[in-house]
Amino acid sequence: MQAAADASAGSQPDLELLMIGYQKADGAATTALVEALSPQLYRFFAAQMGSRADANDMLQELWLRIHRARHTYRPGEPLLAWVYAIARRVRVDSYRRRHRLALREVACDVLPKVSAQEQEPDNLPSFEELVAALPESQREVLVMLKVNGLSVEEIARATSCTVGAVKQKAHRAYVRLRNLLQQSPTTGAARNKA
Questions:
Q1: What is the pLDDT of residues 158-193, one digit of tens each?
Q2: Of 188, 187, 180, the residue nearest 134 (C-alpha)
Q3: For 130, how many CA atoms within 13 A lie in the half-sphere containing its CB?
Q4: pTM score of the predicted model
Q5: Which label site among 61, 68, 133, 181 has the fewest CB atoms less than 10 Å from its CB?
Q6: How far apart are CA 84 and CA 44, in angstroms?
């Protein structure tokens, strides 16, 4: 509270005292610091970007970073140098992010039409038929792993097995499914053509 009182006493607040108050979770000092620095930081970003929206976004990002790093400010050190070092990093990161996005974007006047290809009905067995051909322990592990999304460790706890045993059951299930799929008439014909 003392920092905020000192700030309001003079026409130009002592920014370092406000920062110390901010570090001590003084709400009034925090508000005064943000109000004192935001206009010049906004101008710093706007001069570089030319876009008000980008400048506002970077200003918000800057205050988030300052908030996260406020404990690193050392009283007695120049505050503006510390703040502008962070602001510069925000500006560089924003530029790099926009540049990466621009490289990924493809300009086109009209989006290409995706043709709906008529697919031949496959004669592959359904998932349920394939899984039914597995022994119970392998079926259980495969369903927990691939359908339910459990980790190997979670499956080991659930089935009272070791992690190695779960991995072995999963591997054996994959081998058996692969063999079943290779024996399928449509996949065999496709493999012979290739």
A1: 888 899 999 999 999 999 988 888 886 654 444 444
A2: 180
A3: 19
A4: 0.48
A5: 68
A6: 9
> Could you report the average pLDDT of every consecutive run of 10 residues in the chain (194 residues)?
46 81 92 93 81 89 94 90 90 86 72 59 73 86 82 86 93 90 61 44
Q: What gap in Å lies between CA 91 and CA 113, rounded to an integer?
A: 38
Would you list the DSSP string of 62-119?
A: HHHHHHHHGGGPPTTS-HHHHHHHHHHHHHHHHHHHHHHHHHH----SSPPPPP-PPP
Task: Locate 9 and state its tokens.
Answer: 């006493």
Please give the single-letter amino acid code of residue 112. P
Residues 146, 149, 155, 158, Cα dihedral to 10°: -120
Return the residue matching tokens 């500006």. Answer: 91
DSSP state of 133: T
- Among 127, 129, 141, smallest CA distance to 173 is for 141
Q: What would the pLDDT profile of 1-18 be if each residue is shown by its tens digit?
A: 454 444 444 445 799 999
Do residues 27 and 82 make contact, with C-beta atoms less than 8 angstroms apart?
no
From CA 60, how far away is CA 98, in angstroms rounded?
16
Number of neighbours of residue 160 by Cβ within 10 angstroms: 7
